[in-house]
TrEMBL record:
SUPFAM superfamilies: Periplasmic binding protein-like II. This is NitT/TauT family transport system substrate-binding protein. Keywords: Signal. GO terms for biological process: alkanesulfonate transmembrane transport. Residues 1-28 form the signal peptide. It comes from Lutimaribacter saemankumensis. It comes from the Bacteria. Residues 40-249 form the SsuA/THI5-like domain.
């Protein structure tokens, strides 16, 4: 009997999803601003740009970099960016409720068997006894803003352990890293390409895995303005098709490791143009390699995970109870599960 893993299923669905994209009309150097964070998790966009997939689709892409998810959502709503990839935040949901933004696909995912996001303790907290998530009671958990993915993860972990934590907003990832190193906050969760080098330096300690608490978590999504989703179908399909080709290359090189050692080396060098640019290549390479998580094939979207996130935001009073999945997500572009 054939067994289907989650990865198999996503791959099969993605193949079906990309078929209509093959007929996407050619676009003539359509200018796009793509929002991103300088993280390995955004590699699909970087690969699509560097390998000409955006250009082949008729898209002239410029990147706009952010330090947190919520400002990116505001940029999409205001027209300062056209497409973006980041975690679902309270700001994104509220803008979707107002008819300004739409989630149109999936990107980074937690997947069983693939090293994912880590739960971290500051060295000071670790030395004081915070050696597992079960000991988080009363600890300061770092977030960028209330309603961020860090808030969602911390809350779900605390709920599972039956403890309460003090959420500490620090606005930017860089500020959180500094606060973790200095012991101003006690705990945080973050993608492995950031977590592992920090832990390797002794500044923090890995005390758990997010996937244990939030299995199959749709960590990041692809989103755009509601206007683009509704009225710019050719452009949106072209973006998703090129993005998906970038994701395929990334997964083959660094996640499934089916493309060979040379391809993996080329991929790390490509990503290094955007990630850990302040470090020499040899010092940046381990963090990039060890931080590779699955980017959904075909930008397939785990709507079950998105619904769980939406339910949490509503239960916490961070968004209106009246917000629905139809307001947040346009499911017409990619396969869903």
């Amino acid at each position: 009997m054939t067994q289907f893993t989650r990865r198999n299923t996503l791959g099969l669905m993605a193949g079906a999803a990309t078929l209509p994209m093959l007929g996407t009309p050619a676009l003539a150097n359509t200018k796009l601003v793509v929002g991103a964070l300088p993280f390995t998790s955004h590699a699909a966009s970087f690969v699509a740009y560097e390998r000409g997939y955006f250009a082949e689709a008729g898209l002239d892409v410029e990147f706009k970099f952010f330090q947190a998810a919520q400002p990116m959502a505001v940029a999409i709503a205001s027209g300062d960016a056209d497409y973006a990839v980041t975690a679902i935040s309270g700001g994104l949901i509220s803008l979707a409720e107002k008819g300004a933004t739409k989630v149109i696909g999936g990107a980074l995912s937690e997947e069983k068997g693939i090293d994912g996001q880590k739960i971290l303790a500051s060295d000071a907290a670790f030395q004081a006894g915070l050696t597992s998530p079960a000991q988080l009671a009363g600890k300061k958990w770092a977030v960028t803003q209330a309603g961020s993915s860090f808030h969602y993860m911390g809350s779900k972990i605390a709920q599972a352990e039956g403890v309460e934590v003090a959420f500490t907003p620090l606005q930017k990832v860089g500020a959180i890293i500094g606060a973790m190193k200095s012991g101003q906050v006690d705990a945080w969760s973050i993608v492995p390409h950031i977590a592992k080098p920090l832990a390797g330096s002794g500044a923090v300690h890995i005390i758990g895995d997010v996937a244990v608490y939030i299995p199959d978590y749709q960590v990041t999504t692809v989103f755009t303005s509601a206007t683009n989703a509704a009225d710019e179908r050719a452009k949106t399909e072209a973006f998703l098709a090129a993005f998906s080709k970038g994701a395929d290359d990334f997964n083959a090189a660094l996640v499934d490791k089916t493309a060979g050692e040379d391809a993996a080396e080329d991929m790390v060098k490509l990503i290094h143009k955007y990630v850990y640019t302040d470090r020499e290549y040899e010092k940046a390479k381990p963090g990039i390699v060890n931080g590779a998580m699955r980017i959904n094939a075909g930008a397939a979207l785990n709507t079950t995970s998105v619904q769980d996130q939406l339910d949490w935001f509503k239960a916490e009073g961070l968004v209106k109870d009246s917000v629905t999945m139809d307001m947040l997500v346009d499911t017409s572009y990619v396969s869903t599960m």
